[in-house]
């Protein structure tokens, strides 16, 4: 596989040289946090490409002068005039227009709906996700997706996705490329996705591209935040039944960063004082907690390593002293992903392992 | 492992492969009643390997036509160690075939072509069509309608075949007012083979659940309308779906087709978000859906003093429709200029008019059949009435 790939790259470069074509490539990032931007648009002379899942783009063009515009909704577009006479790397750092406009951040090409050769796809940014009302005030990714046409739930409060007549097992659910098998916490009322840790979500309900497989109905691709490369940030919330806390920041400025996000429900803590010790059900309780963490390190302009993981546990104990019945249902989920992105050649990238 | 390759602006090539090794350990529930401890040491642990190779090519053929085509080859092998038991009519084990560590037991594989074509009618209008074939080798078999821990992930085995689907979709896409409004109308037809259900009258036992599966097919079709306002102070969307979902199993419902549990004829969602000023933001969600289909008892008999029920055909009945309105307001108090501490409050009301939406229906029996006081009532269980809540969020 690797040789075939190298061969293709080589072929590509030969092709480029013989035709006097050069490659412009690079990353698109948020200027404040250094977070890479997925689906940002890079246009030249009215045509364009979009940055991939890792914020990387690449264009091969004949020798000449070009106006290159990098844009992403909610951000100031950036325009650069270049004289393309060799292949080189051009990174863009886009500035957010204003914090308030965050609600309308729309994470794809503005005309993508009409221009892409992709059907039934919906992208949801973190800001959009957070502005939709939800049960108990707890933002929930899967319940928000259930508001799209063709996607439904099985019943009140349930987080299972039923896409175009398919069952909940027919969705390929990826959290930072790791397959998630059980998306709900116990009873399915809450999904395992902690909104504070999520950067971007896209749902494909039809016309699934070939890189996805193993499921019939849809793909839900969720990427976690990478962590702020410039400064520390603490974010959290206290709600009626759960609290959240996230910390992100640089380990080494512009080189390495981390993100940790935790959540716990406390229905049990609130309910316990109301269950008398004499009650048949004394000692019963339910709570869940989960943790998302991610670190990434940029060795060079060409190499970047990511390590991310999710860990969640549900603790449900049911006591009935009357019938001397006792049950313990442990229920949990964990994922881990190690990824290495390498730019082999300016127009071959990236390669996650 | 994935590779992105951009040979020219008109072409984008992506290819790669992956391998997964699966281990399935069913039954994680343990419990105790009195002195009896229920802690099954399940013998039906299964192993499998799954591999996939793909090429995906996006090609701008001309300014009007774009083709996205892909091909995937996937393969799945159930691996040893495993023991296959043959059973006689009474269910007793007669003989067995033993497979050693890593020895292949059953192999499945297939090609999965994927294709989407876009044709631009104008700069803001396009039509698209797609055909996809998908294979699925691991399955979640559900006894209840919700995602409970009783649902079981099972691999394809010598008994369980992979699920196969073909989906055909076509749509009209149009944006208005400099892409401020995105609209689409899509229609689809999906054919699903080798679907799995538990057999009629299934009760949990310590047997390998695989022995209680029945297999059949399913198909669904429908249309979806989506209107999305993406910019401005007021944003939000309206989504409407008209759909049918059928299932047909030779061993269920007398072999006749029946609506799937999640068959929903009409489904409407309205989402609105409004930025009043820097301090206040409001949002609202309204959902309406046809009730879930369900199987209910149609006749009650008293046989030797015991109440017996005769059930309707599978999913013959519909629960009452589901609708709900949620409201939310976000208050961001004026932030001090110095310091980067910011905070905001979210007030929300779930199910604002407290609609008692049906979760399920059961029949309650009171009195005794002997003195003629027997009464049977249908009762509806609803989960959430109106639920207000407050969340405080901060960032620094």
Describe this structure in words.
The complex is a heterodimer of chains A (353) and B (396). Chain A folds into three domains: 19-97, Carboxypeptidase-like, regulatory domain (Immunoglobulin-like, Sandwich), CATH 2.60.40; 101-222, Ferric Hydroxamate Uptake Protein, Chain A, domain 1; 233-342, no CATH class. Helices cover 10% and strands 43% of the residues of chain A. Chain A has five helices and 21 strands. Chain A has helices at residues 2-18, 112-115, 126-130, 141-145, 267-271, and strands spanning 21-30, 41-44, 47-50, 56-62, 64-71, 78-84, 88-89, 92-94, 121-125, 151-152, 162-163, 171-175, 178-179, 198-204, 218-224, 233-238, 242-252, 256-265, 285-298, 303-320, 325-342. A six-stranded antiparallel β-sheet of chain A has the order 16-17-18-19-20-21. Chain B is mainly beta and 396 residues long. In chain B, 0% of the residues lie in helices and 64% in strands. Chain B has a 16-stranded antiparallel β-sheet that branches. In chain B, strands 3-4 form a two-stranded antiparallel sheet. Chain B is globular and about 75 Å long. The chains are: A mainly beta (353), B mainly beta (396). Strand 16 (233-238) of chain A pairs antiparallel with strand 28 (387-395) of chain B, so a sheet runs across the interface.
């Amino acid at each position: 596989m690797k040789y075939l790939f190298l061969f293709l790259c080589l072929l590509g470069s030969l092709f480029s040289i013989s035709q006097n074509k050069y490659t412009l490539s690079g990353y698109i990032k948020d200027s404040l946090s250094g977070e890479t931007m997925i689906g940002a648009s890079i246009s030249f002379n009215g045509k364009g490409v979009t940055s991939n899942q890792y914020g990387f783009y690449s264009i091969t063009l004949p020798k000449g002068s070009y106006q290159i515009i990098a844009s992403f909704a909610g951000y100031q577009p950036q325009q650069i005039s270049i004289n393309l006479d060799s292949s080189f790397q051009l990174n863009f750092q886009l500035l957010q227009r204003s914090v308030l406009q965050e609600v309308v951040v729309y994470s794809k090409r503005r005309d993508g709906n009409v221009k892409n050769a992709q059907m039934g796809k919906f992208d949801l940014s973190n800001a959009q996700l957070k502005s939709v009302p939800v049960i108990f005030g707890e933002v929930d990714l899967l319940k928000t997706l259930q508001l799209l046409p063709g996607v439904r739930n099985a019943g009140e409060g349930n987080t299972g996705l039923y896409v175009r007549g398919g069952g909940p097992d027919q969705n390929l659910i990826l959290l930072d490329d790791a397959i998630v098998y059980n998306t709900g916490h116990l009873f399915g009322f809450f999904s395992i996705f902690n909104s504070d840790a999520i950067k971007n979500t896209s749902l494909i309900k039809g016309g699934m591209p070939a890189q996805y497989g193993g499921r019939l109905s849809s793909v839900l691709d969720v990427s976690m935040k990478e962590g702020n490369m410039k400064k520390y940030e603490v974010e959290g919330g206290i709600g009626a039944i759960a609290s959240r806390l996230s910390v992100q920041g640089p380990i080494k400025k512009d080189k390495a960063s981390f993100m940790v996000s935790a959540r716990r429900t406390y229905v049990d803590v609130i309910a316990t004082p109301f269950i008398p010790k004499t009650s048949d059900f004394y000692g019963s309780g339910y709570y869940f907690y989960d943790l998302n963490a991610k670190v990434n390190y940029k060795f060079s302009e060409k190499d970047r390593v990511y390590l991310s993981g999710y860990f969640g546990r549900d603790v449900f104990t049911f006591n009935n002293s009357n019938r001397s019945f006792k049950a313990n249902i442990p229920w949990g989920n964990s994922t881990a992903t190690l990824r290495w992105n390498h730019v082999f050649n300016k127009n071959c990238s990236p390669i996650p392992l | 492992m994935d590779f992105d390759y951009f040979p020219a602006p008109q072409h984008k090539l992506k290819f790669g492969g992956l391998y997964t090794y699966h281990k399935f350990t069913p039954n994680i529930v343990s419990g105790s009643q009195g002195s009896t401890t229920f802690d099954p040491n399940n013998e039906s642990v299964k192993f499998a390997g799954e591999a996939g190779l793909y090429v995906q090519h996006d090609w701008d053929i001309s300014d009007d036509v774009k083709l996205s085509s892909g091909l995937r080859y996937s393969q799945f092998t159930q691996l040893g160690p495993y023991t296959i038991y043959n059973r006689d009519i009474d269910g007793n084990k007669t003989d067995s075939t033993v497979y050693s560590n890593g020895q292949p037991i059953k192999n499945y594989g297939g090609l999965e072509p994927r294709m989407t074509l876009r044709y631009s009618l104008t700069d803001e209008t396009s039509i698209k069509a797609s055909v996809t074939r998908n294979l699925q080798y691991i399955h979640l078999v559900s006894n209840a309608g919700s995602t409970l821990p009783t649902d079981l992930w099972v691999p394809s085995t010598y008994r369980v075949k992979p699920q196969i689907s073909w989906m055909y979709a076509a749509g009209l896409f149009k944006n208005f007012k400099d892409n401020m409004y995105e609209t689409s109308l899509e229609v689809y037809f999906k054919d699903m083979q080798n679907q799995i259900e538990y057999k009629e009258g299934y009760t949990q036992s310590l047997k390998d659940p695989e022995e209680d599966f029945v297999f059949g097919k399913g198909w669904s079709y429908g249309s979806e309308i989506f209107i999305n306002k993406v910019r401005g102070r007021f944003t939000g969307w309206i989504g409407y779906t008209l759909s049918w979902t059928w299932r047909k199993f030779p061993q269920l419902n007398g072999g006749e087709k029946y609506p799937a549990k999640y068959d929903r004829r009409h489904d409407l969602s309205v989402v609105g978000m409004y930025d009043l000023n820097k301090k206040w933001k409001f949002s609202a969600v309204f959902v309406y859906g046809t009730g879930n289909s369900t199987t209910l008892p149609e006749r009650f008999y008293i046989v030797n003093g015991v109440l017996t029920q005769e059930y309707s055909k599978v999913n013959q009945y519909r629960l009452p429709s589901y609708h709900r309105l949620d409201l939310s307001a976000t208050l961001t108090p004026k932030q001090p200029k110095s310091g980067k501490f910011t905070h905001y409050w979210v007030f929300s009301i779930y199910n604002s008019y407290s609609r008692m939406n049906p979760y399920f229906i059961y029949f309650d029996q009171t009195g005794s059949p002997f003195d003629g006081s027997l009464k049977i009532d249908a009762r509806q269980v609803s989960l959430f009435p109106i639920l207000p809540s407050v969340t405080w969020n901060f960032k620094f």
